[in-house]
Amino acid sequence: MDLRFERRLRPIAAVILFFFTFYCIEPLNFAAYAQTPSTESQNKSKSAEEEFQEAIEKIRDGIDQEDTNKIKTGQGAVERLDVEIKQQFKATENEIRNLPDVIKQRHKEFVKQYEENLKALKSNLDEIKRAKTKTEKEQANKKTKAFLEKTKSPSRHTPLDPNNLPHRTPKVKERKPRLKKEDFAELQTPVQLAFAGSDQQLLALITPDPSLSQKPTPADLTETIEVQFTPEITALAEQLEHNPVKIYNYVRNNIDFVPTYGSIQGANMCLMTKQCNDMDTASLLIALLRASGISSRYVIGTIEVPIDKVMNWVGGFTDAQAALNFISSGGTPIKSFIEGGKIAKVQMEHAWVEAYVDYIPSRGAINKQGDTWIPLDASFKQHTFTNGIDFKTAVPFDADGFVNQLKSTATIDPITGSVTNVSSTLIQNTLNNYQAQLQDVITKTIPNVNAGNLLGKKSIVPQNFSILAASLPYKVTIIGSRLSELSDGLRHKVTFTLQDQSGFNVDISVTKALPEIAGQKVTLSYGPASSSDESLLLSYVNTGATSLPAYLIRLKPELRINGLMVASGSSIAMGELQPFDMILTTPTIGSNLVSNTLTAGTYSAIAFDLGVVVPKQLENAATRMKVIKQKLETSDFAGLTKDDIIGEFVNGIGMSYWGLMDLTTNLASRINGVMDIRLPSEGIFTQDITVHFAFGIPFSAVPSGFSTDIDLDYHVVFAKDGDQTKPVTHLAQTGMLGSNLEASIYDLTFNKSYTKRGISAAHILEHANSQGIPIYTVDKNNISSVLPALQVSNQDKTDVQNAVAAGLVVTIPKTEITKDGWTGTGYVSFNPITGAGAYIISGGLAGGGYSCKCFLNNPVAEFLIGIIPSVLVFASFPGLLLAIVTIAVITTLVAIEMCEISSRNDLNIDQQNTLIGITAGKLIFEVLVGLIPKYGALAFTTLTVGLDPLMKLIGNMFRIQNQQNGYKQRRKGVYAV
Asked: Are 178 and 478 in contact (CB under 8 A)?
């Protein structure tokens, strides 16, 4: 590295030392205090607090194992570190001498409690030494264990619920469609079907229906939770000339139908994703009509559709029962009718729109005074399907030969079933060879390569009407309700509940309908509880210290939506743990509780995927960051908040994760011959801190990188041809790819291509294999022999036991691993019948992270050097912010590039290779997933190792190239640094 750059970077590094105080204080205040420290921090591998905590754990282990030497070693370390800690106490007293008395009092109380606990520990250990009889020793050990249990450090571990795995198809409440008016919440009369007569006769037949003869109400023109007159909606309405026919044609021909039930996205998000269910499509149509001054309303009822139309409508199914199961699993009430031994038609609940238009005489072609309610359904349509290459036939793969080769190179224990040293070279060579064969076939058979002719595509059959029809394109069995606004029971909702540290009292409780937060940034962070706490934070920033005294700092939780604080909680000490629950309530599944544990002082984005994350969402995030960047470049801090910077950053990571997951899921579904729709899913992406404890009380806090926890990754997956093995394969593939991405997203974020710095279950299994650590597949047949051999925490062992008891198969390394400063384990709990799984790392996180010492003097280069060289001209606070914002821009643009693979007409050679590489890998994975029940750890380990070349392809394809004059986007028209 250029030493000039390193010296110039030091002023920025000094600020980065306390980058994590961004979590707590606003940029303007921070900027006022940020100065270059007079002395540089000492680079030490472990702090006294961390060593002290480890020494206490060593004493605990020694007592559990009745190991006198371990107890003695731990006690010696405690006595040695006590001297250093008391020196820190004196330094802290000097540091806070000019701060408010409340801070000084907290310090005195902590020191007193520390000394009392230390005295009690020494007394207990002395009793163990003095014990002469077995009974005395047992009593002394018991007393010491009770003391250590009382003062042990709290755990963030979230137990695995084997019956609610994060990556799965949730069970919906299967319902038959309602056929009686009284079964619906609101009663309305049904619409009339088409009539081929004069205008006067048509009007005479339509108007006798009391509901249709009613005049519109003001509510039929107003905004609602789902119907918002956003700039995008109003601009499109104007573009369509506020013409009801053009509005209907646009929505009908551009919005793809997704068979889920209930209000999820709302109008604006539906316009953005263009993949919406019937209610969201109706919301979009109503929003455009109302923005044009046209009264409109929802209609909920039951319709009857021929089965061939249904199979085409929902994705091109060739098996009728599979199509019905697909719709039902998405939550829609549906019933089939048999004629001649075959399914002939279905009845299903559905939503559409009625618009009050000028129908006599213009038939809706002119937007003027309305006279008639006309039914419109923009969600019902038919498609054309183009098949892609049948790769399995074109390039057969010798699965048995491949497995036999793997078995011959790996070490397999016939008794325990453990696998060691699976050949990564063999796997990569096999993938490369298969990819070359695919490339050869494609080059010879396809002149212009694109995702469609490789994998197949679906296109809406367009219909451009000149007038509005008076009827719907199917039979209406019953109309149950007409609504100006969707009732609350039809909405998907989420409740955020943060409890106090006791876990018994609610500190924050906020409920939002998903359409209210669709596409918005949701963050949960912590701010100073008082002006004294803010002064303390700023004081430590000013001195350039390497850690914060957590016991001195009180914070308060803050829940924000799009930067606006919607709730704040009560005071809590930095480093304390808080239970954080989310309850997702749907019209079809009911309530689903998701439990997490947050550390006070972290900054989290709660990122939702409400069906699909598309480039437009990520481009919007990039646009917001450009505005922030411009403000920072001009030192314009007015109105700038920590949520604009840190919140935008972690949210950008979250949305990029979902964007890449949706891309790979889309590709995999086309390869696997399945339809996969995403139900509302959620993950927490956190800028994390590590807290060191002294006798169970937070002592110090240091930044520790980033963590991901995917709580819900919900899919509805069915094979188009009814093959029940394909969904299992598909879910296993996407689950393992998702596990890899939970860590790899940080590699891509920090512009390191694919370095495997991140931590996830997939990475840990791969790392264990490369280190020669045996990998077990644990099931009910071998758990009694394998469990005692596992050298992992008791919490992880308990999760393994519970998973196996529930019928799952668990793949886990024998020992914990240490990787880039992170120590722990990772494992996969897999349901071989359904394909559902949990991809867990230590701490109970269904996700991954990026562990780094990003804030120390030397490793700060990891954060800046090689990412954005132009930032080095900044030697102040704005330079740091510019770096952070630009990193987030990189994150989103990487995902934009990835998402566009599936929509481009032509692909360059790099893109072709990437797509072909992913295709090759997934085909091999499909074979391996089928071998999991038989080969267990061998199959899973091969899956994880096989992800390596695929992720390298993705990383190499989409990383932003390091140019001498900065990082530049290759795509024209995209923001370049």
From this structure: yes
Highest mean pLDDT among 181-185, 291-295, 889-893: 291-295
Distance CA 214, CA 194 (A): 20
Round to whole Å and give the CA distance between 669 and 146.
54
Predicted model pTM: 0.88
Pair 320, 429: CB distance under 8 Å: no
Instruction: Report phi then psi at 718, rounded to 5.
Output: -140, 145
Read off the pLDDT of residues 80-121 as tens digits, 9 standing for 90 and up: 999 999 999 999 999 899 999 999 999 999 999 999 999 999
In contact, 355 and 244? CB cutoff 8 Å: yes
Q: How far is CA 914 from CA 317, 738, 946, 948, 958, in A?
A: 28, 17, 15, 13, 10
Angle (nearest 5°) at CA 459 between 457 and 461? 155
Q: Please say whether the beta carbons of 483 and 186 come within 8 A.
A: yes
* Sequence-separated (6 or more) residues with CB below 8 Å from residue 550: 573, 574, 575, 601, 691, 698, 699, 700, 701
Q: Which residues does 361 contact at the CB level (< 8 Å), separation at least 6?
A: 199
Q: Which two tokens stand for residue 827?
A: 């494992």
pLDDT level of residue 750 (50, 70, 90 thresholds): low
Residues in the chain: 977
Q: What's the pLDDT score for residue 706?
A: 87
Q: How many CB atoms lie within 10 A of CB 163?
A: 12
Over 90: is that where the pLDDT of 174 sits? no
Determine the average pLDDT of the residues in 578-601: 91
Percent of the chain past pLDDT 90, that is, above it, reads 46
Locate 449 and state its tokens.
């390569």
Asked if 857 and 838 count as a contact pair (C-beta separation under 8 A), the reply is no
User: Under 8 Å CB-to-CB from 666, ≥6 apart: which residues?
Assistant: 676, 902
In the chain, pLDDT over 70 holds for what percent of residues? 78
The single-letter DSSP state of residue 647 is I
- What is the bridge-based pairing of β-strands 822-824 and 522-528? unpaired
Picking from 377, 347, 169, 190, the residue whose alpha carbon sits closest to that of residue 279 is 377
